[in-house]
């Protein structure tokens, strides 16, 4: 389904993905880091707070990020194909975009928010270019192989927890256990208090601490999560080549993949969540449950979500139009979300960090969603690109690009 040079299915699914990512990122914006994976660490793990965690883990956790990666791979390949069709150097166009995306990502990570994904996408995108000529079956096969590597890599985390708990006298393992507690477990109350005080402080104190912790994160991210991200980008490239993400499949085929993907993955996620709760969010249960146990099933959920969204979209309908506009401006909306949420939660803004429960922070999510849906379409009615999309495009091409719709036309 196309409109001009746009593919409506890509824009719509991307719009849902950029909105859906905030369902998980809001915890990282508003609470100490381990709360992202472990509700017992902070934010509440009973009642409505537990219900929110269960719903997020089962339906959205990892799936919206994976869907975003899926769409990134498809969009990246689309840009490459169009550059080649114009007779341009696909490598030059692609790597210029990735270099500038890396710059945007590093600025975002070091100056605004530690949870940036753009720098990671830029580095993985540089690698994904090498596989652009593969057949669909080869892309899928390589993606599955990469997910196996990710499964092995993430399995070392719960294995380390088990070894450290079995040998408490081992200093190296004890240090590793303390570090894992700060990412997945329930750290000491004093450490939580320090984190809250830090994030309610000045921009400078937060930025200095963030740079100290995150200066080599792009490289570490390649080793820890790059296998999975590259796999999802390859699946997205295959989705574009096969016609899935262009809306070319028949309705029965989308229905089959939605039912199969979600029908297998979501019950498994629910069982994993129930097991984690039964283990009272122990460090071993959380690291095993949220990391290796989900790797084989997340791709099914991603494909299921993409298929369901394509089935549900209605070209020309109010909601589809608004969501697609948010997807066309995913870059601006993603970075805008970082600016808005850090201003709300960090000390140089309203200082709400650590004040809201897990359930309460979703009031902010709904408000930000409303903002995305309200502003994206009117902007695109007047301008050809979102503001940051235009800046990225201009920097990548080495000259200012026309942005007003009349000039663009």
UniProtKB/TrEMBL annotation:
<feature type="transmembrane region" description="Helical">
    <location>
        <begin position="255"/>
        <end position="277"/>
    </location>
</feature>
<feature type="transmembrane region" description="Helical">
    <location>
        <begin position="12"/>
        <end position="31"/>
    </location>
</feature>
<dbReference type="Pfam" id="PF04235">
    <property type="entry name" value="DUF418"/>
</dbReference>
<feature type="transmembrane region" description="Helical">
    <location>
        <begin position="359"/>
        <end position="375"/>
    </location>
</feature>
<feature type="transmembrane region" description="Helical">
    <location>
        <begin position="216"/>
        <end position="235"/>
    </location>
</feature>
<keyword id="KW-1133">Transmembrane helix</keyword>
<protein>
    <submittedName>
        <fullName>DUF418 domain-containing protein</fullName>
    </submittedName>
</protein>
<dbReference type="InterPro" id="IPR007349">
    <property type="entry name" value="DUF418"/>
</dbReference>
<keyword id="KW-0812">Transmembrane</keyword>
<feature type="transmembrane region" description="Helical">
    <location>
        <begin position="297"/>
        <end position="319"/>
    </location>
</feature>
<feature type="transmembrane region" description="Helical">
    <location>
        <begin position="139"/>
        <end position="161"/>
    </location>
</feature>
<dbReference type="InterPro" id="IPR052529">
    <property type="entry name" value="Bact_Transport_Assoc"/>
</dbReference>
<feature type="domain" description="DUF418">
    <location>
        <begin position="241"/>
        <end position="398"/>
    </location>
</feature>
<keyword id="KW-0472">Membrane</keyword>
<feature type="transmembrane region" description="Helical">
    <location>
        <begin position="331"/>
        <end position="353"/>
    </location>
</feature>
<feature type="transmembrane region" description="Helical">
    <location>
        <begin position="117"/>
        <end position="132"/>
    </location>
</feature>
<feature type="transmembrane region" description="Helical">
    <location>
        <begin position="95"/>
        <end position="111"/>
    </location>
</feature>
